[in-house]
Queue: 2 jobs
Job 1
Amino acid sequence: MIAPSLLSADFARLADAAQQVSGEADWLHVDVMDNHFVPNLTIGLPVVKSLKAATPLPLDCHLMITDPKRWAPGYAEAGAYNVTFHAEACDDPVGLARDLRAAGAKAGLAIDRDTPVEPYLDLLPEFDTLLIMTIKAGFGGQAFIPELLDKVRAARRVAGDLELRIEVDGGIAADTIEAAAEAGADAFVAGTAVYGAQDPAAAIRRLRGLVDD
Ligand code: DX5
Ligand code: ZN
């Protein structure tokens, strides 16, 4: 799965940005930041509702917010495909995952740069997606941290027969995507590498070509 991140697109033209990748992307990654969980402010539920009406692409909503228990179900009800919240922000990840699934969404758990994955490995059957940050959450355009792929390897080892997507987010580009795939990731977020390119659709094709068997 390739999920271009709108964080690197023109925020005044989000529908156009979705349209630019609609023939190539698997998911559209939407970075929701509340200037509290991370020191950056992006977009919220009203924009996600509008995007849902503007594109047929499945919306991969990455909630970098405090108190996801309060807000995340609204994204599921708005028709988001994946609703991914941060482990660091939630004291009942299993309860919230069940609520999201009950609301018709896939449930995702995100692990930020400084958080070990081990405490969460037992919870993976409750989730559809595990998002391993390969940077510190908050901003696009940061350098990929290869050491964080150890978390992908650890999760892939225990995932076994689970239908679990392991998604990587941060610094994914032509020079890093293969290492992430080798570690066991099968969903790739790319912001700068897609929307910073002259031709976003061609950038996705190039990334896909590097990881498709
Ligand atoms: C950052 C976001 C990422 C961001 C990645 O916290 O979660 O999705 O868009 O941007 P790049 O691909 O530029 O690292
Ligand atoms: Zn993201």
Job 2
Amino acid sequence: SKVTFDYSKAAPFIGAHEVDFMKKQVMDARELLVSKTGAGNDFLGWIDLPVDYDKEEFDRIKKAAAKIQSDSEVLLVIGIGGSYLGARAAIEFLRHSFYNSVSKEIRKTPEIYFVGNSISSTYIRHLIDVIGDRDFSINMISKSGTTTEPAIAFRVFKEMMEMKYGKKEAAGRIYATTDRAKGSLKGLATEEGYESFVVPDDVGGRFSVLTAVGLLPIAVSGADIDKLMEGAADGRKKALEAEYEDNDALKYAAVRNILHRKGKSVEILANYEPSVHYVSEWWKQLYGESEGKDQKGIFPASVDLTTDLHSMGQFIQDGSRIMFETVINVETSREEITINEEPVDLDGLNYLAGKSVDFVNKSAMNGTILAHTDGQVPNLMIDVPEVNEFYLGQLFYFFEFACGVSGYLLGVNPFNQPGVESYKKNMFALLGKPGYEAQREELLKRL
Ligand code: PA5
């Protein structure tokens, strides 16, 4: 079994011939990608990453993870966007639902907190409270080495660490994941002697989960990064080698573009397992930042179900008909709970006695798919056979490859993010950063 894409439930909205008709366009987009001749072709290092990565560094990642596990009760992972979401997605998907709060006997590995993904002083102060006087390590992740959010958090926690351990021991507890040669984080790491890991030049943030960016925090959490890479390598083989007719990544790219051209401008990624929440957050960045440009793109949204059926369900069923829905279905639940019979059926649930909670969850899912389809929301499905590193690796690669093809189909450069700079310019001007004086005057007049 493998991660599979199934659009059979969208049959009322897409004729089989439509997917055939897309073949030439999809194959052309695929060719642009794999021949590395399209826009953004200097950011395609992720295509071969699962088979062509730095093995020596991979070993160092495992060693660093083992050291952190042995000398720290807490790991702080500092990063934002592509330097944040992949690790969080993997850890929340693979590990205990209450990873940080469950007992150490069950978790076995350090608590892991993510910071530097906002500019909230309250969040930082509260995290300081959580660390208390316990031993901790820091993984500071920034490809550019200059992003404001993580840089601010790093200043605070570096100071805390140096106060606690002294400069020398602190340096042994700080791990920097950044560019091979440039940026202020690289300079700092060299100056202070931090162990460094590399974000390859040709891998953009949102495609970097299978580099040290994702791998070090994932390894610290106790997840098996060898299996993750194996799954990604398997996903790569399928994406690169399967014919169009049997190629799930190509068909996902085709089908979402067919629906887009029919006026569906929003794709909602839905899940029925809370542990998938951050996979959706990672996916939103991947697709949103890759496709949302030149006033084009499908808006990537997400819901956690059945939770959000009680908040967003009304809109999906019955509001503006602007969306299609892609369900991530974890086929086999990790844990099983059976609903027991009660002598007096006060809550009226005895009709479920002997059934599993997951049976109820799957029934909710199937019922919802049909209801939303009846409500004119085309439903696609991505099946994940079970929760493990191998299938997560497949899933990451499936989404990345489909994203590259889909972006070329849309006619954009899927590998840049020029729009991310606008807020930064304004923020720097308002903060009084040297060099932004003229913009500052303009902006202050407008506020
Ligand atoms: O995908 C991207 O390029 C962004 O989301 C970046 O990952 C994010 O801005 C963080 O950048 P950096 O790793 O340079 O700090």
